[in-house]
Specification:
Immunoglobulin-like; C8orf32 fold; 4 helices; homotetramer; Transglutaminase-like (chains A, B, C, D); four-stranded antiparallel β-sheet; Transglutaminase-like superfamily protein (chains A, B, C, D); Papain-like_cys_pep_sf (chains A, B, C, D); 2 domains
Chain lengths: 278, 278, 278, 278
Amino acid sequence: MTITETECETTCIDVHSQLIYEVANAAEFQLQIAVRPLSQQSIESESVKIYHNDQQIDDSQWSEVAIPATENRCYRFRAEPGQWRIDYDAAVTKISQLQAGSHCLSPITSLPAEALPFLNPSRYCESDRFLQLAENQFGGLKRDDSLVEALENMVFNRTSYTMGSSNAQTTATDTYLSTEGVCRDFAHLLIVLCRALRIPARYTSGYLVELQPPDFHAAVEVFIGDHWQIYDATRLASLGGFVPIAIGLDAADVAFASFSGKVNMLNCTISAVARTSA
Amino acid sequence: MTITETECETTCIDVHSQLIYEVANAAEFQLQIAVRPLSQQSIESESVKIYHNDQQIDDSQWSEVAIPATENRCYRFRAEPGQWRIDYDAAVTKISQLQAGSHCLSPITSLPAEALPFLNPSRYCESDRFLQLAENQFGGLKRDDSLVEALENMVFNRTSYTMGSSNAQTTATDTYLSTEGVCRDFAHLLIVLCRALRIPARYTSGYLVELQPPDFHAAVEVFIGDHWQIYDATRLASLGGFVPIAIGLDAADVAFASFSGKVNMLNCTISAVARTSA
Amino acid sequence: MTITETECETTCIDVHSQLIYEVANAAEFQLQIAVRPLSQQSIESESVKIYHNDQQIDDSQWSEVAIPATENRCYRFRAEPGQWRIDYDAAVTKISQLQAGSHCLSPITSLPAEALPFLNPSRYCESDRFLQLAENQFGGLKRDDSLVEALENMVFNRTSYTMGSSNAQTTATDTYLSTEGVCRDFAHLLIVLCRALRIPARYTSGYLVELQPPDFHAAVEVFIGDHWQIYDATRLASLGGFVPIAIGLDAADVAFASFSGKVNMLNCTISAVARTSA
Amino acid sequence: MTITETECETTCIDVHSQLIYEVANAAEFQLQIAVRPLSQQSIESESVKIYHNDQQIDDSQWSEVAIPATENRCYRFRAEPGQWRIDYDAAVTKISQLQAGSHCLSPITSLPAEALPFLNPSRYCESDRFLQLAENQFGGLKRDDSLVEALENMVFNRTSYTMGSSNAQTTATDTYLSTEGVCRDFAHLLIVLCRALRIPARYTSGYLVELQPPDFHAAVEVFIGDHWQIYDATRLASLGGFVPIAIGLDAADVAFASFSGKVNMLNCTISAVARTSA
């Protein structure tokens, strides 16, 4: 399912996440929950508050860092034992513009350099194992966005969305066999098929309006013509309401939280609401 | 084995690679064979010549592109059917400087942003599967460069260098079980252990003086203190003679050649020779 | 941990299992819950009752079959939709005899034919992947029961017993890496090491007195000298209280319940109690 | 492809295998090269000769053992260092009879006990990973031999026979993804699909008339109605010329040669020739 866009439509979306953890021994936190700054996505306001045992910590005690290759924003801090709560809020204006220009898939020799790493296999997207299979099934098709739609259709049709059917180590191979998964697995399977056919594809995490139950979501960006086009083979909600957080090769790069030390998640509350414009 | 360096020593190394392919149907080539530009490695002269059926093609028919995140240089061209030959030559001056500064391993919250992606698991380095194992065996050690040396020792001691014992899909897990591999596999296993212990580690391909038989080589760069330190658990030759080509998460990112289409390698000749200085 | 046996001691053990299922569409059931008839284990009394929607079905509606190679007993029936309950009870007298005879491991050419299949790799015990690793670590040891004890020690020492840490597809390779598992995984890892060293080893399910929480248990039988000796690397309870149900290559062969159709387990209650003798 | 049989036709086939090994340190050999005694396959004459450094060893120095569950015949001997040669010859009369009786697939509750183990997943046939995929694609078909033909068709159509495309650790999952393999891999893939659909299926090695290049071959026996029916998804030659050696869960059970110790195969010559009847 691709975004169907009307010319230059504007949507205002409020996103919120609250994460609560129990830390046994001192631990280091990295959080990728902040909205990604994009030309089509302007951050009107944003707030992050971090609490240790219900007391807000000083801004000097945590930092924000942006990863150069992806511009993913990452909050980092050292957490002493106790309960930790992170509250993130942002108001985002999405500007959807009709994607003009070519819908052809570029030959490898014409791809921009920044797209090349997204042709390679990655931890959960072993595209080197799908080369012949993808070629057999899709190699004869015209190389434009209809090919990507055919891949998205296949993933949607052969995969059941089943909560709890996969875990953190599940790869695209596993999903291809089990024929079930969650958003992460649908994304990995679509990515693997794209890359096996020499189409750059990357993983994007985000907030999604109207997702039920509310949670972080995952989708796929495919390089078509001269831009990254977003796809979501789960078809759970309109991508007009998708607010990207972080991009990467696959789920390994965009974990919303990673730690050293023994950390136990107590709660995770996510929301994304579209405001009716003033 | 780390580089043992004396203060500011200079070495001149001539590297050469010749690749010959048979192309059945029109194919697209990407080659990562050019020496990486680095502060410690100055490229004195460089030449790349590409031949189609023994006739050199015009420079307008191929291009060079540098991948932003890594600065890996990549030659690209479209190859019509026939025999293709690529000749690459470079004269490099390596400046080895005594690495001063800290030898401690940074906590995650102090790592520079560019190092963060190299903490994540990747296609051939499934570090998420090694977390507990690495913690059990090495979690109690002091977190400085002696920890990385302990890991390098372990990889060297438990792995036999055996030509033909692995293939393009072999992962660090496979190597950990089989206890044998080639340079690629030694590198993956060392990387997996570093990342499992929250130490950034990346894969680097390169030319290596005195490697027998001559071939492309692979080593590991580990982020220690404030710089990337090179390690080679194969211990096949002195790293003073290593001339880096490309870096990446693992072998998936630095393939010396990748193609679309049916391409058959006919020959591959590599050499790296240290010149006695004038 | 091997059974420590005194001469010809007799233990009476009452075992019980109750399984309750919800069947949506007509399904076929196979249950391996009945105690295995053995020379050292005499079944004093036994009862199996099967209920469909709380009404006991007639004995003509289910059957018992014994698998020739293993003598595993299997209850089979076709289940119409509704709730199904199976109650199994048995009173067993175990006769523990001091194992006399050789404690040497037989060379392959002297093994009895019935032991040979248990040298081969199986679904969850990929011993062909552990050959070199086992040889490196244990190849120099004397080939008698002290070698098996060394393997059992290794499995016990490097593996944490962690509920929920594995699933039905977890293999010995997974357990070797994750260093955690449940009884099934401890058994698979011990089996894999035995077979990699050319020692026949098989999986046995059973009831176990004093297991907390009560559940079906899994252990390993290793062919030593001229008999199958039982080992349990979990060391959760004395093997004097182990009442074997079924043997096989690994967990794939001894599932306590397998089905066609959509079947949902509602409850599973197990007990094994040693009677103080009269 | 099933055997197409005319009523009670008789074929005489001469089979031969010669294996030559270099043994560095004393090793133990197990060979499964002898024709399997079957009602439809009478062994008219048979000879096995074993040579150490070109000198035939005495019959007392090797033995034959039959594995109870499968009746596979196995030659065993201890081999001192040096060159070893094994010559096996047999003349076999195959009696092909029209398979009368049911062609329906039995429900699990009606299967004979001996067929039950061949419903379980095994080392190279991870049928537990294919349950949903097989159900989605074939679950709606009539459960008779036309279902098995549909499976055989699928394996034949999606898999390329490619020498050297797999190795000893390749599983059915690997073959399903790579879409290529040799006879072993075609057999594993057909077995996996049968078992995933609750149809007993086993692996059989054998000699095959007209196989090019001559080699040991692998096929599949599927339990249909009341007998094991043979299938070969490679379709390389008529199964009328197939002379079974050994059966098992998969290739792990029927290796034509297994060893302890360092053994190097120098040569392997196989032939199977149909005699024009007198």
